[in-house]
Amino acid sequence: MSISLLVSAVLRYGDFFGGTLMGSRWSTKDTVSHLMDQARQGVAWLKERSSAPHLAVIIVGDDPASHVYVRRKVEACSELGVKSTRIDLPEDVTESEMLDEVKRLNQDDDVDGILVQLPLPSQVSANAVIEAIDPDKDVDGFHPVNVGRLALGQAGLFPCTPVGVMALMKQSLPELKGKHAVVIGRSAIVGKPMAHLLLHAHCSVTIIHSRTPNPQSICQLADIVVVAVGRPGLVDGSWLKPGAVVVDVGINEIKDKELARRLFGEDSKKYARFMRSGRALVGDVDYRSALGVAAWVTPVPGGVGRLTIAQLMLNCVTAAKRRLS
Ligand code: GUN
Fold first, then answer.
1. Which of 87, 109, 148, 277 is 20 to 30 A off residue 215, Cα-Cα?
2. What DSSP assignment string belongs to 169-202?
3. Among protein residues, the one whose CA lies closest to atom 8 of ligand 1
4. Is any atom of ligand 1 closer than 6 Å to the C-beta of 60?
5. Is 118 close to ligand 1, i.e. is its CB under 6 Å away?
């Protein structure tokens, strides 16, 4: 092995030598299978009691990304035997029409989970719609009651991406207690709930956001980094402590040739594919650069996206079980 390869291996597996985070498996695919198995068992248990879970999904307008996400959610339902109802509303739907729809689903005893795909058009307040959902049917975990329950460490329904990421980390890392976790991004969907969940797992948590001075130097202290800001390739190897674990929640479409060249490398298959199609999906982490320093980096695509859907299925099962009891 050449000196540079050896140095890079030592850097990449730094914590193996330090004996902290390494010595464990790290596979989003395994965690997705595990969550889906748990959900499948839950569905079987509910079906034995004639109470198969039922998810209602509301989607507004024609946003292509939202349609892809909703299709995947509905497909996961049919894979597991979860009943699903998809409600398509036009782009010019009014807020009061949406609130009526949510009210109707709240009152429908056959419906266990309600999910309103975001974003919503500007004439509709997402907050008003989310607040109208019965918290016990709020499988996205966005309702203020569930946000409060999460902050207080009480039982509730919590956002699928951060809960899925926690499942991945609990399955893959020997110990979370005492680790320094840096969450980059403070969204209600990922950043804030992620920070609460890491705190409940006894991590020391720092949140970095757009107004944080010297974010890079703070990130360099982290054992665990979770990035969810929507800035393609923001976090590269220079942000990371050797041996850190990095979870990339970002998903961005890029069309910039220079950026693609930097992220993929000119001689790569990915760059060739980008040159053919003129676009590519990337995360918030510069994967190639980060991989040279971190112990683990989740890829985009093919990383946490499937965790989110698997956890949504588990949230539907949880909601259905609670309603049954
Ligand atoms: N839009 C982007 N992510 C999500 C999500 O997790 N849930 C919903 N409802 N909409 C989204």
1. 148
2. HHHH-S--TT-EEEEE---TTTHHHHHHHHHHTT
3. 117
4. no
5. yes
DSSP secondary structure code for residue 287 in this structure: H
Q: Which ligand 1 atom is at minimum distance from the Cα of 66? A: 1
- The tokens for 41 are 């068992």
Tell me the catalytic residues. Answer: 73, 117, 140
- C-alpha distances out from residue 202 to 22, 130, 170, Å: 18, 30, 12
Q: How far apart are the first and last CA of the chain?
A: 61
Which is the CATH superfamily of the domain at 159-307?
Answer: NAD(P)-binding Rossmann-like Domain (3.40.50.720)
The pTM assigned to this predicted structure is 0.91
Ligand 1 center to residue 189 CA distance, Å? 8
Among 47, 119, 30, 39, residue whose Cα is nearest residue 79: 39
Residue ranges, CATH 3.40.50.720, the chain: 159-307
Q: Is the minimum distance from the CB of 282 to ligand 1 under 6 angstroms?
A: no
**Is the C-beta atom of 188 inside 6 A of ligand 1?**
no
Sign (positive or negative) of CA dihedral 61, 66, 68, 71: negative
Class of domain 50-138: alpha beta
